[in-house]
Amino acid sequence: MQTVLQTLKSPAVCLQGSSYEMTMWFLYQLVFAFMLGSTRAESSQFPCNPTKAETTCNECINSGPGCAWCKQMNFSKEGETSSSRCDSLSNLIARKCKRQDIINPQSELSEIVNDPFQIRKDNVIQIKPQKIRLALRRGLPKEIAFKFKRAEGYPIDLYYLMDLSYSMKDDLEKVKSLGKQLLDALTSVTKSIQIGFGSFVDKTVLPFVNTNKEKMKNPCPTKSQKCQPPFDFKHVLKLTNNADTFNTEVQKQHISGNLDPPEAGLDAMMQAAVCGDIIGWRNVTRLLVYTSDDGFHFAGDGKLGAILNPNDGKCHLNSLGFYEDSHKYDYPSIAELAQKLAENNIQPIFAVTSKIMPIYQELSKMIPKSAVGELKEDSSNVVQLIKDAYNNLSSKVIMKHNNLPDGVRIEYKSKCSDGENVNDKNGTCSNVKIGEEVEFIVTITAEKCLDKTYTFEIRPLGFTDKLEIELRTECNCNCDDSFEMAEHCNKHGSIKCGICSCTNNRIGQFCECDPGQQSTQELVTACHRDNSSASCSNQGDCFCGRCTCHTSPKKKIYGQFCECDNVNCELNLGKLCGGHGTCDCGTCKCNSGFSGSACQCPQSDQRCKNNNGRICSGRGTCECNQCKCNTGYEPPHCKECPACPSPCPKYIHCVECLGFDSGPYKDNCTASCTNIKHNKTGTVKQKPCKEKSSKDCWIIFSMTELDGVSQYEVVIRKEQDCPKPPNIAAIIGGGVSGVLLIGLAILLIWKLITELYDRKEFRRFEQEKTKAKWQDGDNPLFQTATTTVINPLNN
């Protein structure tokens, strides 16, 4: 715009006389119309909800991004307060405020440094612009577009951090000759590479290591083996481009040992990150290769060894490279480590064995711009692993900001080379090839006025390039109409932004009143809303027929009769207007995106949408970002109706005609079953419906309720379960056989009963027989066959 104006004023425009003046007038009007149109387009999307408290221009423009101030003289009507000057741009124009008298500041952007992309060895530029100056109006977002182009041959610093616990013995032998291989492998990527070396074991206190004197000297399992004393972290070799030096220093290293499986890897990573001068990090791509075959200790584990001080995130390496205060500070937390790695622009590569891959994969999710690779038991694949991990990391661009002032919000949108647009917390693009450009758009919003100019940075993780932003807020009206002791103000004040700023304690719209004068009854009455109300609502003082409201740091009282304040409004969740609006005379004026009597309702329907994007599944209404479901259906998305009867019996005829072209709806199936969708490729669910068709066949099918009312999808089993016709011969044969079997059974039962009865009687007879006792005696009727006669004469 400045260029356009300069062109208009340039001597090169050689018009003379009235023709020149007419042309200049026309061009200025054209430029002004363009500027006004841009302003309207930028702020028209924001409403203006002014309260009666905005009595100055500054208060007005800070009440919302859609509010503008009219500084036109005598704009306010009789009886109106100066707050009537605060309104939306369109309303002010409709109320006949001249356009040149409207103050409506906009967010402004100017580029300070915008050098082109370049890949010179001494100066690689991958991001443009490099520095901008931004003036934000409170609440008015401003978009900033910048580009990133991945350069070829970007320098690399690689620090190899190795676990030297006893289980890594074979790996150490392999690493001792690794220097040249690493340099050769990465030379194909960049001509400027440096490598360094460090190692770690664990804290030298119980229960992490054996503190026996002999074990502290040689922690190997047997005395015949040679191990170096245990240590937490040791910086061995500063970053260098000499492979022979790397091999020589690593050759001097010996294995060590500890007691528990987890190691002090996070301690070592923290020291490698914060001791930049000792490690020798350059301002280039920084890779930290971490190799281990076991897990890691983290914050809180130090308490096992009576170490209570939290990790301070500072460098504690002594002259020999040892972490000398490891016994004083606990292990760092993962969040602390991730923060320090990001601050120092370090990308970790975790080269670990297969058994602990899951642990480090979860760790990598919590550390941005990190990678995990599977390390063979002897570390033989570490070179290829590092090369692959570097390619993956460098092709993923993640933007991150730091030093963002409080009250400033930033959002990212990425336009990647594959055409994909991504909105997320950090700008992200994947698979960015060398030489490709990607664009990022950040939207910055100041939610409050800043007390000074702040500087913050946006930079891609893993790269040294950055976009520096100088940020200030535009919270003051720069009015150019100030007149001291103006006639308009009865020579008792100056005009600022169209209103009188009174002096000598004068008050009134035109400084017409002197509070020291004796008030008349008429002036006193003017401070009463009605005959039954108190003067100035008992919240102000009456001077010259106008109320001067009391003030308080936490309570703002205003209104013609001091009848309004900014605290007596409805609460939500313990906050005035739910924390999403301002209180205006008992009514909440909600911020953009909220509604309701207490601004408790987000003007959004995201929580009401189901997985298909349908609001409340078509079976309810979205109120306050929550579904109000139809009778029977349950929130959150009105998907299910547990109390509703099964729809299976109701739609069996539709299922019959859709699946088998039969039944009552056979001839008009499509018209009769418009709400039923037949899925011919699906599978029937575990708990299907089972209903009888018009032919008394069982049809098995499942019904899924779709979005909307009485909309279903059915999956029908292809075969019906129809009953077989009766077998007459089998029925007759079965009947006869049944009768015979029953008769035979009755005979057998009768025979069994009689047999049992006879045996019982026989046993009783035998028992009575044995019990009988007979006495000997002669039958008086019995006569023997022999008779003996005795002759007395012979005696």
Care to give the gist of this entry?
Residues 648-727 form the Integrin beta subunit tail domain. This protein has 795 residues and is an alpha+beta fold.
CATH superfamily of the domain at 156-394: von Willebrand factor, type A domain
Content of β-strand: 15-25%
Strands of the largest sheet, in order across it?
A: 4-8-22-21-16-19
Low confidence ranges: 1-41
How would you state the average pLDDT, rounded? 84
User: Judging from the principal axes of the Cα atoms, what is the shape?
Assistant: extended
Number of helices: 17
State the end-to-end CA separation.
Answer: 194 Å
Oligomer: single chain
Main pleated-sheet profile: 6 strands, mixed
Helical amount: 10-25%
CATH fold call of the domain at 156-394: Rossmann fold
CATH architectural label of the domain at 156-394 = 3-Layer(aba) Sandwich
Q: How many DSSP-defined strands?
A: 40
User: What radius of gyration results from the CA coordinates?
Assistant: 48 Å
For the record, what CATH class of the domain at 156-394 applies?
Alpha Beta
Category from helices, strands and their pairing = alpha+beta
